[in-house]
């Protein structure tokens, strides 16, 4: 951060820019001096550029974050805004999640094709095609509605909505928060509550990533840190990290803070949805210490990180540590109850799928190069 300018990194998609501008608007409200000194740099990520494969078959991490994080490390930007669900549970050295903005509804939503506008998933006839590239969604829908057929669909929200009515999908499943941030409330025909489909770790929350030693940026972001969201997402990320999960395994979660208690419920599914391990834990949160002003406590305390999320001002180390430990304990409990077997099978299956996808891409690339090589040889003979 220079003396006069704050530079923000963002993906180029419409939704990414809406999310980034949400954070910028809130920062300007908290820090009026930023009104004319903050600007955005946009860039494409690996995940944005690979649109012909399901994310689970690509076999890489940081698909939507690597380029932005490189810009952070090289000090081209001061912070970047992500959908928290896109951030791996282990961040690059020297980076941290400087704040987690207040979470929107984390549930999934169903968008129906024109011919099914008055239906829900339960109303669709046998063989109806549901578009999603998420193994988590796919496994849970297969278990709940085995009559439905799941097919991959990729692209940003605009692209997927276009594909819904241009292709043979009867419905697609997307994050409710993303649709609402785009202003597309009217396309949501059904909200999948956690009893039908638990959500993705971090879904519905925005994360602002910055350099861990950039105290000026951390102070700037501090007013946007939502404590309840941070506690829930710390528990979720710790749970996922212990399971060693990601987009290539069907892992889902639900968290809630109610009456001073943090609850986390998790699920691990086989790809076909036929096997699953579900469990939950609840822990009473320690009381926060409000006897000192937040600013004074922040100066006295060292900033700790929990599942990559930095401790917010005015919140105790004990509270954040409890959330992290609760997520880890739930994962350990589930692994001991059979989730390890499901995950091992799933990872083996997906490793083979990734090999096939790589081989298919190599074959396609070779097929394209062969005519070019023949043309070149013919030209040299002439």
From TrEMBL:
<dbReference type="InterPro" id="IPR022418">
    <property type="entry name" value="Porphobilinogen_deaminase_C"/>
</dbReference>
<dbReference type="Pfam" id="PF01379">
    <property type="entry name" value="Porphobil_deam"/>
</dbReference>
<feature type="domain" description="Porphobilinogen deaminase C-terminal">
    <location>
        <begin position="230"/>
        <end position="283"/>
    </location>
</feature>
<dbReference type="GO" id="GO:0006783">
    <property type="term" value="P:heme biosynthetic process"/>
</dbReference>
<dbReference type="InterPro" id="IPR036803">
    <property type="entry name" value="Porphobilinogen_deaminase_C_sf"/>
</dbReference>
<feature type="region of interest" description="Disordered">
    <location>
        <begin position="360"/>
        <end position="382"/>
    </location>
</feature>
<dbReference type="InterPro" id="IPR000860">
    <property type="entry name" value="HemC"/>
</dbReference>
<dbReference type="GO" id="GO:0004418">
    <property type="term" value="F:hydroxymethylbilane synthase activity"/>
</dbReference>
<protein>
    <recommendedName>
        <fullName>hydroxymethylbilane synthase</fullName>
        <ecNumber>2.5.1.61</ecNumber>
    </recommendedName>
</protein>
<keyword id="KW-0627">Porphyrin biosynthesis</keyword>
<feature type="compositionally biased region" description="Basic and acidic residues">
    <location>
        <begin position="360"/>
        <end position="371"/>
    </location>
</feature>
<keyword id="KW-0808">Transferase</keyword>
<feature type="domain" description="Porphobilinogen deaminase N-terminal">
    <location>
        <begin position="6"/>
        <end position="217"/>
    </location>
</feature>
<dbReference type="GO" id="GO:0005737">
    <property type="term" value="C:cytoplasm"/>
</dbReference>
<comment type="similarity">
    <text>Belongs to the HMBS family.</text>
</comment>
<dbReference type="InterPro" id="IPR022417">
    <property type="entry name" value="Porphobilin_deaminase_N"/>
</dbReference>
<dbReference type="Pfam" id="PF03900">
    <property type="entry name" value="Porphobil_deamC"/>
</dbReference>
